[in-house]
Specification:
This protein has helices spanning 3-19, 24-34, 63-73, 82-85, 100-105, 107-113, 149-172, 182-185, 207-215, 231-244, 280-285, 305-313, 317-328, 332-339, 343-357, 362-377, and strands at 39-46, 52-57, 92-93, 118-128, 132-141, 193-196, 202-205, 219-222, 225-228, 258-261, 267-274, 291-297. It is α+β, with helices and mostly antiparallel strands and 378 residues long.
Amino acid sequence: MREDEALSALIGNIYDATLNPSLWTDVLKQISHFVRGSATTLECKDVVSRTVNVFYQDGGISPSFIRLYNDKYSSLDPCAIDHYFATVGEPRATADIVPYEEFLRSRIYLEFIKPHGFVDGMTTALDRSATSVASVTVFRHARDGVIDEGDRQRMRLLVPHLRRAVLIGKAIEFKSAEAVTFADTFDELSVPMMLVDADNRIVHANPRALALLTTGDPFSARNSKLKARDPEVDHELRTIFAAAAHRDDSLGGRGVALPLTMRDGGHLVAHVLPLAAGVRRRAGQNYAAVAALFVHEARFPVPSPPEVIAKTFGLTPTEFRVLLAVAEVGGVPDIAEALGVAETTVKTHLTSLFEKTGVRRQADLVKIVAAFADPLAG
């Protein structure tokens, strides 16, 4: 199969997993193959505890691997903090975060990653809140070498579709394989949802969508056709629905999260799921629908504790890693060993931390971290 054909098939399978979560394991295997990885996980990282909750994995990562990471090594991971700062949708490999030679000297690599045969990882944030980051991580085995720019580019081709699938999955809260009977159950969804054909015609709307349409804000139905009050949004939706009638990959980044503003100043967001192929075709076939439109309240991004601390004191990511290491690891020799750097390097960062925070003792740095974390932890 040519790469473009493999990409198109994979994108279709990603959308199928939106309606049938039992497909995710196989989809993640395909992602591993497409970006030349050996294992892939779809997970949620907790900002406060710095632990990982893996929703789906492709078999290359065992539950014991995740347990060991959470129990012993999450606080030593030099890449973990970056995931809370990273731009949503941008793949980040180890070398994008820390010097790779430094990573090879770190405790987490020597004691944990290397014994499992891995040499690199690439994580992409798909959604973020104040307390967690939903992301996809591809692990690279030693036999395949480190992540390169070609691997990042392959992941960028998948990211809009993964984001759409994850965001829609969260909005509609399908939790089992029974979701494949979507066409029979969407009326029970707790969010407004409409099935739309290639000509922008509404062929079905669930009760919550009908209630939304009667208000004319932000959508109305004119001659059975969907009409957005905002002209730009209306044009974008027409373009999206026309594209959805063809190939899944034709949507690209369109319709991942369309912002909608209400007359009263309220904010909604819309997601578009193509229905023209795969198991999704059964969802729209009876209605001649090419896409499903989901609408829900917008969640504005709230800075996470790492972002707040870093912004408050003007810390670099490296300084912030040392700050957390002070709180979680201990003294200078232990921090240097854990991070794989020289003690003089740690002392240099500590000097900068003291200057920026206005304190003089490591114990006071620990109190700063605790002060920002405790309100969320409670």
